Amino acid sequence: MYQEVNERTNTPAGQTDQVHAHYNEVRAIFDILNGKKEADLLLKNLHILDVHAETVYQGSILVYNKRIVALNPDEAIVKVREVFDGEGLYAIPGLIDAHIHFDAQLAHPAAFGEAIVPCGTTTIFSECLDFVSAAGDEAVQATEALFRHHDRLPYRVFAFAPGKKTTVEVTDALLKLDPVIGLGELAHLTYSVGNDDDFRKSALGRVKGGFMNTHWGVTALSDMMLNYMPAIGAFANHDVWKEDDIEKSVRYGLQTQIKFGVGSSEVIKIMLRAIVKRKWPAENFQLCADNISVDRLQTQGHMDWVISLCAEMGIDPIQAIKMATLYTARAFRMDNKFGSLTPGRFADIVLTDSLAKINPRYVFKDGELVARDRKLLRQADVDYSGMVKTPVPGLHDLAPEHLDIVPLEISADGRQAKVYLFDVYGRGHLKFYDEVWVPLRDGKVVPEVDGVPLNRISVVQRYAKGTRHVVNGLFKGVAIERGAVATFWPAPKAYFVAVGQDSAEMCHCLRQVDAQVGGCIVTDRREVKAALPLDIYGVIANMPLAELVAKTRAIDAALADMGNRNEGEPVVNKLLTLFISLDRFGFMV
């Protein structure tokens, strides 16, 4: 294994520069270990977790040029610029999120770092498909701008070019960008019919290096698709929801990523119980968030929380830590860079007072102390204001009557109507939508199921050519007695969702969001009560973390005043997950 000094080049002059740089590096490390040159940092008084031997030992860690260069160096001869007292804490590798949607958290990369790094996360493997899709014709330039200064962030980013929601040409261009390492989530519905664009994207992903993500509960796949996806090179699967999913995912050789994400925490508990019950080796698994709000990161944690939950559910704590460190690094063939506290690896180190319940007291990235006691010590020096877009409204002709529920079918006696019923928790572990019979009185749908009143939902196309596409139905997940909440998400298609009880109020709320690039707004009696603007291509807020969290919570508070009782993720995040399933189940055109 060698130190990476800078990017390789094939020119003779570049090769000479590379050799010279590496020569200086190896000489410097030799001189440091022999007491002739100064190292950057010595972390002392540690209980170091050896993830290879699965033991803990007392010792120290020496750091030079962002890397660990020695364990337990001879302190009688070593020279060092800074000494850090580890207070007898456990030293574990920096935590890794094996699969997260970098864009779907609504925070720009710097603000997102404020949320995850204090939790001990120093590396993420990220999708960016919604951002790319939202950027449209500007996708390549926008993505390049988003990641331009990723080296200034207090965490490492490895990204994936979209395997869906964009064109082959855009995917090809993004695969050439840094820090993109492979092909993201593949679209199983089109792969199953032999779409040529999918073949071409897969070929591009294989040429890039072979990292290709697959997702969809594997028990929902046909036998052909279950064989086809890993056969063409899809190596990782984060979409498991139950024991049978895990069994098939592991059996077919997929690196299986256990996620917690948006939704009920009971889902991840089901999966962890299955791992314990079936005694599946932990090396088959990585841990990830997939989709999660920054609010939940602030209140519950990130990979630190998942590791702690693993231990709580009966997985050995060291195995749980390895699932979020070494096993993830190995899956991506990067265990020579990070994933263990050994010489030659980046000095990404978390100091915690427990292995069973991770409590990141200190977080180091590249040997620099970046967080202490769950607070980021220095903000990333990156300005994203140049990516803010100008609103382009599209609902000039929308009228309240467009949001009225029209029955799919009326019973023979004219007393019942069949309508759509959508469930905010429907993706994955419950059915996302159903067709249900509800009362019909005086020709109007009564919004209740089995006597339980429900809110209405409208799915509204933003830019219509001809007749605007609108789907109206009933909704589980938000229950307000008055007013409305509306949100917009442009990927893969520009659509709104509005929830309320009155068509006129819902229409007014939609018009308020339409005046923005994107975001979420709550209205009551046609007065805006809370708003979260997403000014960067309609998917990312151009604001610091504290402001983003405050606006997210203000939406929940406004809805609570109107009768909603929310649990788990903030309402805005719950509503945004709907767009995934609305597209998947054909409710967008």
UniProtKB/TrEMBL annotation:
This enzyme's EC code(s): 3.5.4.2
Q: Give the highest taxon in the source lineage.
A: Bacteria
Domain named Amidohydrolase-related is located at 311-370
Tell me what reaction this enzyme catalyses.
adenine + H2O + H(+) = hypoxanthine + NH4(+)
Q: Name one Pfam family in it.
A: Amidohydro_1
- InterPro entries from the xrefs? Adenine_deam_C, Amidohydro-rel, Metal-dep_hydrolase_composite, Metal_Hydrolase
Q: Name one GO molecular function term.
A: adenine deaminase activity
Residues covered by the Adenine deaminase C-terminal domain? 436-568
* Key words of the record: Hydrolase
Q: What is this protein called?
A: adenine deaminase
